[in-house]
Amino acid sequence: MSDDTAKFEINGKTVILPVLKGTDGPDVVDIRKLYAEADVFTYDPSFTSTASCESKITFIDGDKGVLLHRGYPIAELAEQSSFLEVCYLLLHGELPTAPQFAQFEQNIIYHTMLHEQFDRFFQGFRRDAHPMAIMTGAVGALSAFYHDSTNVNDPEQRMISAHRMIAKMPTIAARAFKYFRGQPFVYPRNDLSYAENFLRMCFSVPAEDWKPNPVLTNAMDRIFILHADHEQNASTSTVRLAGSSGANPFACIAAGIASLWGPKHGGANEECLNMLAEIGTVDRIPEFVQGVKDRRYMLMGFGHRVYKNYDPRATVMQKTCHEVLKEVGAENDPLLQVAIELEKVALSDPFFIDRKLYPNVDFYSGITLRALGFPAEMFTVLFALARTVGWIAQWKEMIEDPSQKIGRPRQIYTGEGPRTYATIDKR
Ligand code: SDX
Q: What is the pTM of this model?
């Protein structure tokens, strides 16, 4: 990729390391032969300076606030594309032609049903189980139902498992919601769009069918686009690491869902809404911000490992938030007022300015999802539904990389040196 090299001197040894250049982004020092040649490891436990893989899917320039999927800016995709088209783009690398899209849409829309026996699986959970707990278990259980697409070495089975997961995730997510609510499951309908079908499975009840609203359906589809992929974040890295051992894709995605659940990652949207509700009114913001500066808690929905500028998804999310709230007649939602003022206060406070802390995708998503009718417990489930395509595209890319090996980090051991075992009567 480049003729540049980096010279590394340690313990009287000199190692010349290749420097790799991507399409964009910082150069990367290839340290793979460092241990063999210099007998040292590198130390970067949170991967702040480490590229864990080569990828062609998503690019982020965190300083400029740029996010591209296969080269296309996120704002253009959110404005002009559809979630299923973005799924195709992420999986195949190019936007589909009309016949390619029709075939892809058919593959997804006609595979939304779950094996009937699968529904009994939900009954094993406590009636008030958190929907993310249900998701982690249920998605892992897919590998017990679809044995014909678990051979990771067969390209056709890999694609079938990708289609299956994109198709069935809304059905599983809606069932997790219905179970949590204590309402009967609603079956998918093939004549509806992806987002419509999902909203209907969530909000239709036997006593009253769900009524489509194009503004809300479009918002749902756009929210899915905004969450579709985000290069090597914690959950995607988890999926890649799980998959590097050859584990089946359903199990790998379940691992990704578990990683996403944490409040520092996808769980932040739920925590952010709880935070806004706890602040409650605009006059309590200064006291809350002081608590953040005193390090008693974090400002949820703010900050990002990569973005040191506005998260471009947050810009689109904020606009979507206003559209949805206007449509449902909740423009004066007190939590929206708190969010707008909190953002203003934080963006003009040296604590946040100095640390380059800006709103991320989760800051406005909770208010929007609440206005769409979802309780906070469902927010991370919706993130997982949308991120499934990113996880699976990244998993496929890893499996198809000829240089791929099992992931196996090393460590700096700081425990006891060798010592002799003493029997219990001698301790
Ligand atoms: C997602 O990686 C991805 O791409 C993730 C994601 C995706 O699409 O996959 O974009 C989705 O996970 C978005 C992030 C959602 N999380 C939150 O909103 C939770 C709040 N944010 C923080 O927990 C934090 O900003 C992280 C976890 C997002 C990033 O953490 P880093 O990169 O490890 O940064 P850091 O903890 O080292 O923080 C640097 C400084 C510290 O202060 P100092 O010790 O240097 O004085 O900034 C401070 C931190 O204390 N800081 C915050 C803060 N975030 C960072 N202070 C208050 N509130 C915050 N939110």
A: 0.96
Q: Tell me which of 61, 355, 394 to substitute to probe ligand 1's pocket, judged by most ligand atoms within 8 Å of the beta carbon.
A: 355
Cα of 47 from ligand 1 centre, angstroms: 14
DSSP 223-259: HHHHHS--TT-HHHHHHHHHHTTT--HHHHHHHHHHH
User: Taking all residues of the chain, what is their mean pLDDT, rounded to a whole number?
Assistant: 96
Ligand 1 binding pocket mutation candidate from 265, 311, 362, 365 (most atoms within 8 A of CB) = 265
With a cut of 70, say whether residue 2 has pLDDT above it. Answer: no
Active-site residue, 154 included: no
Q: How far apart are CA 139 and CA 73, in angstroms?
A: 30
Nearest CA to ligand 1 atom 24: 303
Residue 355 is predicted with a pLDDT of: 97
Which residues, in sequence order, are bridge partners of residue 68? 59, 73
Per-residue tokens: 43: 């130390």
Name which residue sits closest to atom 13 of ligand 1, judged by CA: 265
Give SS3 for 179. helix
pLDDT digits (tens, 9 = 90+) for 354-367: 999 999 999 999 99
Q: Please say if the pLDDT value at position 227 is more than 80.
A: yes
- Beta bridge partners, 72, equal 69
The predicted-structure confidence for 180-195, as pLDDT tens digits, reads as follows: 999 999 999 999 999 9
DSSP readout, 347-388? HTSHHHHHTT--B-THHHHHHHHHHTT--GGGHHHHHHHHHH
Q: Give residue-wise pLDDT tens across range 284-327.
A: 999 999 999 999 999 999 999 999 999 999 999 999 999 999 99
CA distance 414 to 110: 54
Q: What 8-state DSSP symbol labels residue 359?
A: B
Pocket of ligand 1 (CB under 6 A): 230, 233, 264-266, 268, 292, 298-306, 355, 357, 360-362
